[in-house]
Amino acid sequence: MNYYNYFTEIEEHFVRRRGKHLWVSPMDWSLIATWRDSGVPLHVVLRGIDRAMDGFFAKRSRINSKINTLFYCHASVMDEYAQHLESHLGEHPMEGADTAVSAAQKPDGPDKETILEFLNARISEIRVLVAKLSVSEGGPEGMERIVRRLEEIIGDLETDNQVDFEALDRDLGILDETLVGELRTAVSLEQITAWEQEAKKELKIYRKKLPKDIYGKILENFMRTKVHRHFTVGELSLFHL
What we know:
Blueprint: H1 6-18, H2 26-37, H3 42-57, H4 74-87, H5 112-132, H6 139-159, H7 165-184, H8 189-203, H9 212-231
């Protein structure tokens, strides 16, 4: 898995292929997060987008039409991912450089200095929130525990010779879930309901085409993104470097 610019590379590739300079929507961003959470490699996503777009533009009747959402490519991305998994079925963990080599061994990840800057920026944002919010009973204390854990991670990174990207992003994912849980308690029920209605409205035409688990993950990621943007704090994930 490529831990560097996963989101932006997908977004930029999709924008180039559809031929319209319009960035993806928050719901599209949630779909990308769902691909990420499902373990779909970057190159497989890009190949799936190409497959969907090639099929779309091959039809003369659609030559002047535009694709307005990344959801159009979802089926193709999942088909490519299924083929990708099948092609590596039974493969030894050390075989197949594109997929089986662990993330810690990959040379294309962010450097340590970039990661440290990223983590320190997130700590600063969380500290600002702790100063501003009275989230709920025990809320600020929970956010302070997140800060202390991030500081521990920074200390480990400063002394380690190599970065285990996979283990690091797994730890950050757990912290991010905790952070979002803390922050959601500071959001009004009316706002939460409005976000949920917005998500369901945007997903309405795709709901029948999406497996129940994927639909649920997209909604969850959409709500997580809304919380992060509402409080102006970045997600704790190397994918957002």
